[in-house]
Amino acid sequence: MAHRPPILLIDSPSLYFRAYFGIPESAARAEDGTPVNAVRGFLDMLATLIRTRRADRMVCAMDHDWRPDWRVALLPSYKAHRLAPEGGEVVPDTLTPQVPVILDVLAAIGITTVGAAGYEADDVLGTLSVTQPAPVEVVSGDRDLFQLVDDSRPVRLLYVGRGVAKLEDCDDEAVRARYGVPAARYADFAALRGDPSDGLPGVPGVGEKTAARLIERHGDLDGILTALDDPRSGFAPGLRTKLEAARDYLAVAPKVVRVALDVPLPELPTALPSAPADPDTLLELARQWNLAGSTRRLVDALADRA
Predict the structure, then answer these.
(1) Whole-number Å distance between alpha carbons of 179 and 167
(2) Tell me: the pLDDT tens digits for 95-123?
(3) Which CATH architecture has domain 183-257?
(4) What is the C-alpha to C-alpha distance for residues 261 and 129, in angstroms, rounded to an integer?
């Protein structure tokens, strides 16, 4: 049986935020002066991914709820530092108007986008990673998505922490080498270590190395908490005190960190087109937003793949 090309599952917010901060506004503007740096960079990232990964399927996941109530109910500090005074996420004023342009361009090309009420893009990606035919490649700069790596399907994370041109193709061995834990235990590891970027405090005094050692010794967070109840389990007194003090936090944190795998999603067309679905609209968008180069590179990548 011939090897099937992967489906690329795109963490759209992760990529367009990186594009926005990676390209100066002055270098990418529409004729009326409106910045389009996030749009241009995002489209160029997709073109590069399609060329280099030889994918024949793609879905771009969107954030329909960047801070779901059910996660906040479990952990009120979740992303609280990113909450604007009037509500909503703190997002640069010149980025917000660019997201609809990205969606319009993707629709004109024929690349599927999807989000779900009450869920983050991570949750959409998680669900797609277990429901779409493998192989699966998830593209993100979000460390939480290391938990989706699964060699048995296979599902890999193309980690773009250093940009798409220097993406890291991560299987379970790569996750173990990076953090000292298997991908399946990454959520427990992250709960212990914490993540300030998500308002996840972690256990004070427990860093990456200690978290990894605890998981290596006890298997998972449930095993760690069970061992705490055994006075013969051999915890150093200081570590035992820290973990005991964090019991309430550890009871809810993994549920916050774990990506949902059961988001209700519609049937989705995933095949990448070989030509734009609506070429006239695409031409008009390229003209209006000064995106001729980026749209051409993306269309060329699609045509070359076909």
Answers:
(1) 17
(2) 999 999 999 999 999 999 999 999 999 99
(3) Orthogonal Bundle (1.10)
(4) 8
Domain boundaries, the chain: 7-182+260-305, 183-257
What is the reported pLDDT for 306?
64
Q: Which CATH architecture has domain 7-182+260-305?
A: 3-Layer(aba) Sandwich (3.40)
- State the sign of the Cα–Cα–Cα–Cα dihedral 283, 289, 292, 297: negative
Tell me the whole-structure pTM to 2 decimals: 0.94
The residues, any chain, with a CB within 8 Å of residue 211's CB and separated by 6 or more, are 181, 189, 192, 193, 203
DSSP state of 10: E
Yes or no: say if 39 and 46 are a contact pair by the CB < 8 Å rule: no
Q: What is the pLDDT of residue 1?
A: 39
Q: How many other C-beta atoms are found inside a 10 Å radius of the C-beta of residue 70?
A: 12
Using DSSP, state whether 138 is helix, strand or coil: strand
Residue-wise pLDDT for 248-285, tens only, equals: 999 999 999 999 999 999 999 999 999 999 999 999 99
Among 173, 124, 164, 170, residue whose Cα is nearest residue 143: 170
Backbone angles phi, psi at 200, to 5 degrees: -100, 105
Q: φ and ψ at 256, to 5 degrees?
A: -75, -40
